Amino acid sequence: MKTSTLKSWFWVHKWTSLISMIFLLILCVTGLPLIFHEEIDHALGYSGEAPGLPGMERTASIDAMIAHAQARNPGDVMQFVVRDSHEPDAWFIRLGESPNGAITAYDMYDARTGELLNEYPLEQGIMNVVLRLHTDLFAGLPGTLFLGFMGVLLVASIVSGAVLYAPFAARLRFGTVRRDRSARLKWLDMHNAVGIITMVWLLVVGATGVVNALSTPIFAQWQATELAEMTAPYRGLEPVTRTGSVDAAVEAARSAVPEMELSFMAFPGNAFASPHHFVAFMHGRDPLTSRLIEPVLIDARTAEVLEVGSMPWYVSTLMLSQPLHFGDYGGMPLKVIWAVLTAVSIVVLWSGLVLWVKRRDRSFADWLARARASEPTPVSVEGRVA
Amino acid sequence: MTGRQTTLRVWRLPLAIGLVSAGGLLFALLGDGAADALSWAALGVPVALSGWVLWPRGPET
Q: What is the dihedral of CA A306, A310, A315, A320, to 10 degrees?
């Protein structure tokens, strides 16, 4: 590769990394505990657990749970009924200030007895701070989109770093760290070797993080086009104020697609539904299809299924980007691997930062001594492009 | 220290590690049980190699 081309790539690598560095460090440090957020929530007593009641059917009325939750939160409105495939014996009732307003309650009910099992403590505790730092820097959608852009810089940094790898590593055996020379050389070798070893994992986690950051615009696009089209025949009618039975609606959705399970159902007035419809989002039962959703349109008054839709490619891309970013799709060993690779990524970021700081501090005499060194080492390549 | 290697040669191991990592990322998404175990083994490769590179030791010979 020509020195001038190499120099351009070096420039890209340096600036994309420097601009995003502090945010990527925040994302890694907060991402580490978030890998285990379910376990931490459980240990802190934030999340509940459905007791073992062998032989009991999941026949408790969801309508009764909703009535119970609303009586405890007067004035709040239904947003979603949620099912967690890890907690099949529970229903989660989500209330908000308004159909699309701030969440006010996330209550867990026993699907067999109808008993209230847990009220999730919203916007409290250290994990909430960690989550907000990771997802929006306490700045809402602009914060999320900003972090998404930092993810784009990370991807550019990884690609440019990979281009620079070959000329730097051409004289070294794979994985060599020259610990016997300068500290700077040790950091450089570590940065290059570990960076290239973790490259594909970090590229996937970075790119899927960008897609996750775009979840609001992605769903907004679906709502403005396909959902609007599905619900178009009801446009102009009076909004539904008293819905039909939620139990009947859930049952109708299940009968319409018996091979699928409910993920969540949006209530009339919510952006995931319409003023006249429930929309039940169903997922499959295989490892892969359990991550994808399909919308089932339900008349909010009669609880009749009107249409079983499918999701466009961009929503499916978002749905598959979630597990690939979270690392929650292969049991505890995969989570531990995710955590170790996150820690290794912190080393890559940190060593890159150290290299930049040390370069700035280097005197002309140091530079001259290195330039006059007789042995041609990769340092000479680096000296030329930098 | 070895002589200067061709780009292809320099990239041989990183490409192999990248392919194994990508397989590891996909296996657990496509299956359960044995597929998960395969995924752990595959993603264990970059984990183990990172440990090998970063492990403190004396100067290289």
A: 120
